From TrEMBL:
<comment type="similarity">
    <text>Belongs to the peptidase C1 family.</text>
</comment>
<feature type="signal peptide">
    <location>
        <begin position="1"/>
        <end position="18"/>
    </location>
</feature>
<keyword id="KW-0378">Hydrolase</keyword>
<dbReference type="GO" id="GO:0004197">
    <property type="term" value="F:cysteine-type endopeptidase activity"/>
</dbReference>
<keyword id="KW-1015">Disulfide bond</keyword>
<dbReference type="InterPro" id="IPR000668">
    <property type="entry name" value="Peptidase_C1A_C"/>
</dbReference>
<dbReference type="InterPro" id="IPR012599">
    <property type="entry name" value="Propeptide_C1A"/>
</dbReference>
<feature type="domain" description="Peptidase C1A papain C-terminal">
    <location>
        <begin position="83"/>
        <end position="236"/>
    </location>
</feature>
<dbReference type="GO" id="GO:0006508">
    <property type="term" value="P:proteolysis"/>
</dbReference>
<keyword id="KW-0732">Signal</keyword>
<dbReference type="InterPro" id="IPR000169">
    <property type="entry name" value="Pept_cys_AS"/>
</dbReference>
<keyword id="KW-0645">Protease</keyword>
<dbReference type="Pfam" id="PF00112">
    <property type="entry name" value="Peptidase_C1"/>
</dbReference>
<dbReference type="Pfam" id="PF08127">
    <property type="entry name" value="Propeptide_C1"/>
</dbReference>
<dbReference type="InterPro" id="IPR013128">
    <property type="entry name" value="Peptidase_C1A"/>
</dbReference>
<dbReference type="InterPro" id="IPR038765">
    <property type="entry name" value="Papain-like_cys_pep_sf"/>
</dbReference>
<keyword id="KW-0788">Thiol protease</keyword>
Length: 239
């Protein structure tokens, strides 16, 4: 089932080049990236004077052991089933407003909670065929799951396990150009497609709508950019 593979929480590694003699938020660095003529165009998403520590803080995934209580699901393509070349969950399930909702984690390393709660909300709506538009609270998950984490970072697997065992209340264009490790960030996959013969994943971030393309971005698909294809995490609600 294609839907099960979407709206998953995945972790991506943030990178920044230490070999380029420019400040990482300078216009010169942006121009340098664009001069490489990759599949994406760099732009400004943060003020020039934002400290690197503020950006690192937002990458709040702590890598730990995978939960033994969560099943590993491998999808087998059904005979005769075709996967579309382009897919956007927002268009496929237009009645589920949560899919297109861009959350804001603010100055907090809670991406592990925000992305998980967002994907959980989408799954509830999809499984209920749009009847249940509940928004799972990332604040509750971040504050109450002490074994998961907090604003200093957390474990995505633990978030889904917490949802399974305890429950959570309801609330209310890229291609890697350098390889220096900056941090690990959790985001939500909502679709895929191909642009200029380059396959991509469509991603919803949690840094507000004034970041990226109204809060979303595309990242190259099939090459494990920044580790995005290594550890997708997803689940289904019991309705």
């Amino acid at each position: 089932m294609i839907a099960f593979g979407l709206l998953a929480l995945v972790a991506v590694s943030g990178v920044i080049s230490a070999s380029v003699p420019f400040h990482f938020l300078s216009d010169e660095y942006i121009d340098h990236i664009n001069s490489l003529q990759t599949t994406w165009k760099a732009g400004r998403n943060f003020p020039k004077d934002m400290p690197l520590s503020n950006i690192k803080r937002r990458m709040g995934v702590i890598r730990g052991e995978k939960s033994k209580n969560l099943k590993t699901v491998r999808h087998v393509r059904v005979e005769g089933e075709t996967i579309p070349d382009t897919f956007d969950a927002r268009e496929n399930w237009p009645d589920c407003k949560s899919i297109g909702l861009i959350r804001d984690q603010s100055d907090c390393g809670s991406c592990w909670a925000v992305a998980a709660a967002a994907a959980m909300s989408d799954r509830i709506c999809i499984l209920s065929k749009g009847k249940d538009q509940s928004l799972v609270s990332d604040e509750d998950l971040n504050s109450c799951c002490k074994s998961c984490g907090d604003c200093d970072g957390g474990i995505p697997y633990a978030a889904w396990e917490y949802w399974q065992q305890t429950g959570i209340v309801t609330g209310g264009v890229y291609q890697q150009t350098s390889y220096d490790f900056l941090g690990v960030h959790a985001i939500k996959l909502i679709g895929w497609g191909e642009e200029n013969n380059v396959p991509y994943w469509l991603v919803a971030n949690s840094w507000n709508e004034d970041w990226g393309d109204k809060g979303t971005f595309k990242i190259r698909r099939g090459t494990n950019e920044c580790g995005i294809e290594e550890e997708p995490i997803a689940g289904l609600p019991l309705l």
